[in-house]
Structures are given as C-alpha cells and as structure tokens.
Amino acid sequence: MKRSLLVFAVFFAMCQIVLAQGKKAVTGTVKDAKGDVLIGVSVQEKGTTNGAVTDVKGHFSLSVAPNATLILTYVGYAKQEVAVGDRSTLSIILQEDNKNLNEVVVTAMGVKKEARKLGYAVTALNGDDLKKSAPTSIGAALYGKAPGVTISGAPGGATSAVAIQIRGVNSLTNNAQPLVVVDGVPIRNGDANTGDYYADTRIRGNGLLDINPENIESLNILKGAAASALYGSDAAAGVIVITTKTGKKGKGLGIDFSATYGIEKVGILPDIQNVYGPGYDRETNKASFGADDDGWIQLGDINGDGIADKRPIYRSYAQFGPKFDGSDISYWTDGSIRKYNAHPDNWKNFYRTGNQGVYNIAVSNSNENVTYRLSYTRNDYRGVQIGGDQGKNTFNLNTSIKITKRLTADVIASYINEKVHNRPELQNRISGNYGGMFSSADDINDYFATYKNKAGYKYYMYNSPIDPNDRLKYHIRAYDFMDFLWKQLQNSYDETSNRYMTAATLNYDFGKGLRLRGRMGNDYTGYRSEFKEYSTQPTAFDPTGGFTTANEQHSILYGDVMLMYNKSLTKNLGLNVNAGYQARKEEYRYETAATNGGLVQENWFSLANGAIEPSKATSTRKSFVKDAYFATVGFDINNYLFLEATGRYERASTLAPDNNAFFYPSLSAAFELSKAFKLPEFVTYSKLRASWGIVGNPPVMYAANVMYVAGRYTIVNPTTGTNGNFTYYYPDQNQGNLNLENEKKREVEIGWETKFLNNRVGFDVAFYQNVTNNQILKLDNALSAGSVTMLRNVGSMQNTGVELSVNGTPIQTKSFQWNARVNVAYNKNKVKELANGIDQVIVNNVDNGSLNVVAKAGSSYGDIYGYKRMTNENGEYLINNDGYYVLDYSKMQKLGNTQSKYVGGMMNSFNYKNWNLDALVDFRYGGQLISTTNYYGTGAGLFTNSLEFRDAEHGGLAYYKDAAGNKVLVSNGGAPAGAKIYNDGVLLKGVKEDGKTPNDKVVEAAEYYLNSYGWGGYPGSGSNLYEKAIYDNNYIKLREVTLGYTFRTATLQKIRFQNLNLSVFARNPLYIYKSIPNIDPEAAVGTTIQSRNVETGTTASTRTFGVSLRASF
Question: Residue 80, Cβ neighbours under 10 Å: how many?
Fold first, then answer.
C-alpha cells in the first residue's frame, strides 16, 4: 500500500510541473469533403505526446506551444499536417485516402516493411491491443487475436507459463514455443514442462512472462517459413517480434501514468454432490470397517450422555456412505459431537481472493539530437491459491541519439527484478488422486486448523511421540491434502531472479540508398532459489526437514551486422538488397546443494546443519554457439509486383562439426491487384501473395554427442597382495548421433487480402501446408551397440490449414461506431511417416499406460489410445459375471485426439461519444481432453454426476437380496416378506460374455463406480473405464470486456492533461459454452506439446475484475 501511495504521489507531483507550463489554447472543427463532421479524429501536436480526439460535433480543444503544427489522422483518410500560426480557431477538411493504408510492420531481422509489399502472412498488433484488460502476461493477451495462433494458458496466474502454438505441431519431441525477438535481440523463452506427479509439482513460468505489456509499441507474429526463414533453425515454431516504446521527437517533457488494480476470483469449481458422506459399498463397509448396512460405525456411548454415538468411515476416499441427515456424529478431529451435515463451500473456501496491482510511470523527452523514454513498472500479484505471492520491478530505458548527420545510435536496456514465494502447486495429489480427496462431511477449516499441531510440527495421523493426545481422533483419507497445506503454508520456497536485457544499435547512412547497421545485445538472468522444509517432529525422535539452495544463470550474447541497399533502378523498377552476419552464444549454469538426512538443529536452514555430512551438491554447465550469413534480394516492379528471395547459411555447435551447417532459403511474391488493374469502385485494395521457405529445429544442447561413461576395475595381485585400478569407458545408455541433422520444415503459403468501401470491410485469407522432415526421435538401439537408445532423424509430419480474418465497421454514425474483427483458423495435422518398423511413438501416458497419447504414422499427432469396452457383432456391450463391462485388452484403440481443429476469436469495439466498450470472445472446437480429475471425482462419488443410480430419484433400480446374497430386481409382485429393499441397483445394458444372453446381473451403485473408475486401465486391472476420462474439448469464452470513458478535451484542458481515461475490465469472466464438466477446458498445464490437453490435477482457473486509470500530460 505504501508503494502504491508513493507512485501516486510521484504522479501528482508531475502534474504540478505541467501546470506550471504556459501554452496557447486552440480549438477547431474537423469535417470531410462533404461537410460531415468526423468523430474520433486524432489531433496531435507534432513532436510531442500532446493530443486530443474530436468529439461528436467534430470539435477539439488543445493547448499547444507557439508556432505549433498539428497532425490529424483518421482511418480511411489521408494524414494531414496543419500549421497553427497565430490562429486560435481552425476549420479543417480531411480528404479520403482511397489507397491501401501503407501500414509498416517489423519483419525478420528487425527490417521495417510496408505490409502491402509482403508476400507472406504477418499478424500485427499494437500495444493498446494487448493491455486493455491488464493480462498477466503477453501470451495471455494473444487469445483470439491472431488467426492460426493457439494459446493455452495455465492456471496459476502471473507466474505461470503460457503455451503459444503457431500453425499446428511441427515437432514430435523438440521445442514447441516460437522464437521471441525483442528490439532485434532473441531472448530466452523456452518450454515449461510442468506436470510432475511426485517431484517438482510447481507450476513453472518461462521467459516471455518478463516482457512488460506497458512497454510494448508493437507485436508482430511471423507465422510461415518464408516470413521467418532469416532466423533459420530457431524459427520452426514461428517468431514473435516485439518492439518496445521509444521517446517521441519534439520538444517538451511527456509523462504517461497508469494504475491498474484487479480482484481475482476462482473461475471454475467442481460440481460436488452434497447428498452422501464418506463410505464404500456395503460389503466393504461391513467387512473392512465393521459398519452397519447404512455405512455407520457404531461407537456406543462415548461421551456419557446415555445416547449411542456413531461416525461415518472417515478413512474412505469414496463418498458412498450415509446420507447427510443432521444427526449427531463423533468428529474426526477430536471426537467431539457435531451434526452430520454437508459443507457445500469447502472447495470455494479452499481458495482465497487474489489481487494484482500494476503501476507504471514513463517519462519521455527529446531535442533535435536525443530522444528518450524511461519507465518503471511495479507489479504485485497474489493468486487464489493459498501461500504464494509475487513482486516484480521492471525498469526500461529506450534512447535514440543522433551522433552526426549520418550516424545514429539506439540504446535499449531493461532490468527486471522478481521475487516469488511459494509459486502455485499442481493439485494432482488432491483432485487427481484418491489419497487427497476430502469429503463434504468435513469442514475444510478443520484441515487448516490441524495440518500443524499445537507444538508447531506436522499433524499426526496416529499417536504423537510428544503427546499421545496430540493426534487426530480418527484416521482420515485426505493425507495428501494435509501435506499440500504443510507445503504451501509452512514450508518456504523462495525464488529471486534478476534479468538484464540490452540492445545497442548503430546506424550509418552512406547516402544514395546505402546504409549499415550493427547491433549488440544480451539477455542475462541470474536466478536463486531457497527451499526451506521445516522440521515435522522433534529432532530427538528423528531429524526431519531440510534446506536446498540453487543458483542458475542463463545468458545470451547476440550480435549482427547488416548492409542495406535500396535503389530505384528505373521509373518502374526498384531494388532492395540486404546482406549480413549474425552470431549468438548461449550459456547455462546450474548449481545446487542440499542438506542430507534432515536438520540437526530444528529449522536452522544452513547447509552445515545436515544430519549426514557432507551435504549433497551438483552442478551443470552448458553452452552453444550459432552463427549465420544471410542475405535478401527484393524487387519492386511497377509498384504493384513485389518479389523477394532470402537465404541464410547457418552453423551450430549443437551438432557434430562435420554436419552442423545448413542453408535456409525463402521466396515470396506480392501482387497488388488494385494497382495493377482498374477494379470496381467499391474495391479499395486487393492483393495476392505466395511464398515458400525452409526453417529448422535443432536438438537440445549435447543431445547429439556420443558420450562414454568412465568405470573402474580393481585387480588384486596374488603375489604382492596389492590392488591395481584400471579405468575403462563404456557407451552411455542413451546415445547421441554424430550424423544427426536439424529438423527441417518446408512450407508453402498463398493468400488473398481485400478491402472494400474505403476500408470499411476487409478480409485476409491464407492457405498453407508445411512438412517437417528429419524428426529427431530416441529409438531403441541394437544391444551390440552398447547403448539402449540412439537419436535418429526419422519420419515427417505435415500441417495443412486455412486462416481467415474478417474485419469491418458495421455501423458508423456521428456519435456511434462499431468495429469488429473475426479470426478463424483450421489446421489438419498428419504424421506422414516414422522410422522403419515403428508404427507409433508414445509422447505421453496417463496412469502407467492406461491411456497413451501417441504420434501414429498416417494419423494426427496427439491421438489418444486406450482399451475400449468389448461388444458383440451387433454393437452390444459384453457384461461379465460380476455385472461389469468387459474390456478388450487385446489391443489399444483410438479414443480421441488432443489437438483442436478450429480456433479463433471475435473482437468488438463500440464507441459512443466519450465511451468505449471492447469485448473479446474466443473459441475452440474439435479435439479431446484427458481429465483424471473428472475420472477420479466420478469414481469416488464426489461429483454430482455420480448421483446417477444411487436412489430411485436418480435412476437406481429397486432390488433385494436373496438367501444366497444375490441381488434380485423387485418385480410387480414385490419383495419377499421381511426382505429389505434397496433402490441403488445398476443393470448395465448389454449381453453376457456369450454374446447373446441379456445381462441380468444387478450391482450396487457404489460397486459400479468403485469397480469401473479405479486406478489402472491395462491388462489385468479389471473393468476400469478410462475411456470415461476423455471429453470433447469445445468452448466459447468471453475472454475480455473493457468499459472505458475518455474525458472530454475541454475538461482536460482545465487540469492540463493531454489524455485521461478511466476504465473497468473483466478478464475470463465466463464461458458461454463448454463441453467438459467440473474443470476449466484450459486446465492442462505446461508449454510442451506433449502435455497439451492432458489434465491430471491442476489448480483453479480464475476470473479477474478490475479498474484502470491511464493519463498523459
């Protein structure tokens, strides 16, 4: 709070500086050639950030410096400059611009080009598009905004990585994330492989999280191989080119301030049934726990009140016990008597209300030789999961210096300091595991009260070694949940990182179209973590706890030099030639040490405090070097035909010296139909484009190396009795390959762009097909080779797709304007071939191979295989003698695919006078998701869908038990006298194993769930229906909503502001439709392609509601 007050104090102090500056007041009206007023025209004082927007009457009012010049811009109209002179009132007429807007985008190697001259697809977004709803990261801001780009945001908030996939899966095992280039320098990003069940269950982040949305001027996505070929082997997954904000030319100090605060709530909670408490099926309850027919354990009169006491089976993970009826029970914490009622808000109370505050201030200024922008951003984040928080400081400097008339320098520097305490944990040991589930019979507050005992040690399920009375009264099942609380609320996992990113560029203009550019940059991150595990019991009984510390260093040193020549050879022929050299070195160091055997002195976190000496220590060091020569040649023919060829010759140390050089070419063409031909008047602009290119994907560092492991053999001399030691070497079990090559992706793309009605309506459609050959796979090796596996280049994979973007202004009046954009993309993936003799590669598996995610030759990457229910020739299910489905364990069969077929979004912007409303809806269709949370929640009787069959109201059949214990359906004649009737019978539809006789075996509902949703779905594991863990993954989501008000110019003039906007926003407020129950469709975590749409227990997704203030003066 103090930090926030300080930022606001600085903000208002700056206001006083501005108030002291005297300026001239200018008012005016802006109209078109027909005399109609134009609303929303941008009016800016040249060389400054001072500006205004025309109101509903076309009026504007502005305070400007003497002799100022105004720049007026408006969509569909030519930009116009107007000198104010000695006038105080202006009347301005804008002329329509019937030509295509000459939008400039940043392409490969930082070269700026007119969009109309490009022969490949580029999605260009400006900074304002990315920050309206205050996203937690740049990746999260891209949902639905770029056709062909699939975003998968992991729950976990500001510290969790977001997966970005461009035009499908391109590699079976290698990097799946696009290259990120900031101000011309490639930065560290990478995959975050989160999904470990036992070891590291933290939800990890990646490098893109450090890019501050407040500092972004533009973001361009290079999707095809031709667009990104100049980046060679870094570009198989596409390239994201980010340009940060610079200072503006002109006189005067410019100050921008923003403050955003959001409240974070849990988005999706599981639909828990609150009808039944803990317990198994009747026979298990009786045989294993001594319970009665209704699931009660009778205790006798334990409190001396003369009334017999009872309790349910707290030890049960399943929820098939007694109905909640408000009766008195002995409770599990201390045996006290409580009412047997459900606690429907347990899952809600498991989480907390989170919040995020982002405060940014930027100062910019310039003179004729220097421009600069200096900014500071403070980000405080507290997510919905208990125990964790994050604080981040970001400083950014962007400076441009005119050294001489021909020589300029640009210097950009960023420093990011981040501290994370107890980053979010996966909940796979809670919702994806029977050992962590808690019942509605439990009050979750009691878990918070008992995970730590009175002495401050970890809870005791049984007798305490300190105090026999300091234990839980009854054994509970949710021990993994208690461990989760101890880990998040008692243990401490602190991470501190310091990241420095710089880029220094020199530009020399020789004149006559010849220029030279040289650039140096770096991206360095120093990371330190400390894991403090508190002692769980007194050291006298046994040392526990521990201390682990780790240091990491990631470093990228980058440089390039490029000579650029642009010349008009004739009136109708232009030439553009670029040639250069690029080099990059990356280094990684990791050192860690930990105590061993617990802590001698309780909770003294020092490496010297380990019970067993010495402490464990490990270290890792990696590095690689990559360099390349590159060139481009482009022709401008008649200003409507644009041809370009590029080439990159690259060498990389990740491959053997004799096999580490590759060539990556591209060709592209753009043909502007609207300039070449006289088209109908309603066609404003039209262009055809086509391109072809090759990019690559290298193996990870050292993977290609052929490694040998040292061993020692001791021989005893029988004569002297002395030992002789001999060193020998044997191949590593996982062998590299000196003949290994980069994966190579070849891509063809054609496209058509058209705009109508003076840019009122437009569309852009692209068709592409890419094939990635030389897939790098780890294959079994011959035993004679001395290793188990070897990396090989085998197989290929293809993606074929269509991308469509339609934009327009459906309504435009004097006071209202509606702009809309729709993006839709379709992608079809095919694994064309694998190695000889290999039909498929398993890329992920669930529950020890109960379900496999595979890449199968002839099919699509991400096919889900499992064991299906067996049927007869008529398609009727076979039922075994116990009344359960018979599974066909003879072969695994296809049950779905994890890849979505269609993705897209729709953006709408409504402007009425000074109000604006922006809304973004995105969608996904086709493909499936594996959810063990749903599988286990159903099997445990935890979710409401498991109420089916439990009573007559939910479809349960009436039955009684005969003398032999068989369950017999109640017929019209009723049950025999004295027989107890149950109403939870299940008679599965199907036939007996003979394939003909209708099934007549009745089972209890609890038996059905417990025997059909158990752990393990492989031969010999019974009738577990893992196909029930697969769900269609379709959704339509309202992703962002922002309602803002921009204060009128007249109002701002009084307080000397240039711009002032106040808005409220909602991020991820609701799903309009989703096909999967109980979890968020985006619940699967990790950025690796292998982890996509495989949900094995994650943390909750969130909704955010907030307010934002933005001001310029």
Answer: 16
Q: Which domains does the chain have, with CATH numbers?
A: 2-93 (2.60.40.4130), 930-1032 (no CATH)
Which class for 310: exposed (0-12), middle (13-18), buried (19 or more C-beta within 10 A)? buried
Distance CA 97, CA 75 (A): 9
What value does the mean pLDDT of the chain take? 90
Do the Cβ atoms of 623 and 587 come closer than 8 Å? yes
Q: How many CB atoms lie within 10 A of CB 605?
A: 19
Contact (Cβ atoms closer than 8 angstroms) between residue 884 and residue 1008 = yes
Q: What backbone phi and psi angles, to 5 degrees, belong to 172?
A: -75, -35
Range 1074-1102 average pLDDT: 86
Cα separation of 210 and 137, whole Å?
Answer: 8
Q: Span 993-1020, mean pLDDT?
A: 93
Ranges assigned E (strand) in 33-108: 42-45, 51-53, 59-64, 69-74, 77-83, 89-93, 104-106
Q: What are phi and psi of 1093, to 5 degrees?
A: 60, 30
1059, two tokens: 């711009």
CA distances 1097 to 140, 266, 935, 1080, Å, are 21, 16, 11, 11
Beta strands, E only, 75-177: 77-83, 89-93, 104-106, 112-114, 122-126, 149-153, 162-166
Q: What does the DSSP assignment read for 626-668? A: EEEEEEEEEEEETTTEEEEEEEEEEEETTS-GGG-EEEEEEEE
* Interatomic CA distance for residues 777 and 789, integer angstroms: 10
Residue 601 to residues 127, 130, 611, Cα–Cα distance (Å)? 53, 51, 9
Higher pLDDT, 850 or 428: 850
Q: Average pLDDT in the 79-93 region?
A: 90
Secondary structure class of 584 (helix, strand, coil): strand
pTM of the model: 0.89
Q: What is the DSSP letter of 877?
A: B
* pLDDT value at 860 more than 70: yes
The pLDDT value recorded for residue 195 is: 55
> Whose structure tokens read 């031709």?
226
Residue 668 one-letter amino acid: S
Residue 856: strand pairing partners? 840
Q: 753 burial class (0-12, 13-18, 19+ CB within 10 angstroms)?
A: buried
932-939 helix and 1005-1012 helix, angle to the nearest 10 degrees: 150
Residue 21 has pLDDT above 50, yes or no: no
**Residue 5, Cβ neighbours under 10 Å: how many?**
9
Structure tokens at 46: 């040249």
Q: Quick one: which of 118, 93, 67 has its CA closest to 224?
A: 118
